[in-house]
Amino acid sequence: MVDLSKMTKWDLGKCFDYSVLPKNSRQEDIIKGCQEAKKYNCAAFYAATNYWVPTMVRELEGTDILVGVGLDFPFGVSTAYMKGKETEEAVKLGATALDMVMNIGALRSGLYEDVKEQLRVFKEAAQGNVTKCILEVNFLTDDEIKRAATYVAEAGIDYVKTSSGQFDGPSMEQFLIMKNAVEGSATKSKVAGVKFPRPQNAYAFLMAGADLIGTRAAPEIINALDTMRAIGMVPPYKGE
Question: What's the whole-model pTM score?
């Protein structure tokens, strides 16, 4: 669990995957986003398509910030073959963090073996790079969230993620179901689609056990750290 009492704003940056997700983003938007990711020491910077990966690789060269891309947005409806090919292309272009949407329709149809196979193909195609699977929890029942998260952990995927950020974000209750389902495994938890007010909600998810927050509002949330401490939501800074 993240210990916010030991974090400066710079430290806090590693709790955030910063993103520019609209598929109509311009190159200047991607470049600006990379610059902000470096300024705030983010864990990764994401675009919604493989097309911008070479630009991100160039802009983030020499940093420890992961080059992230969203795959099979927004419903994960591609076949296992296509998920694998899109993932392979991302890796070939230089992506080092890969967020793939689970096939929501297959899961809700009870086609569990298909879901598992797609996760297996995704993990293999990632070739050792960081993998994250998006559940889009607002479309799922509590039982479906638990089942989906369990499959992600069983597949050895690094993170289970609540949402793509394209639709409604998760409730705290939905996040906790997801987090508890992978407890005891090597799979960590990522929250995306944080609802307004973003700073307060993002810090609440971190305090509830989220390992990462994926958001287009990373600068706003990180800049709010002093305010969150002032109102008592985040513990005072104690250092190491």
Answer: 0.96
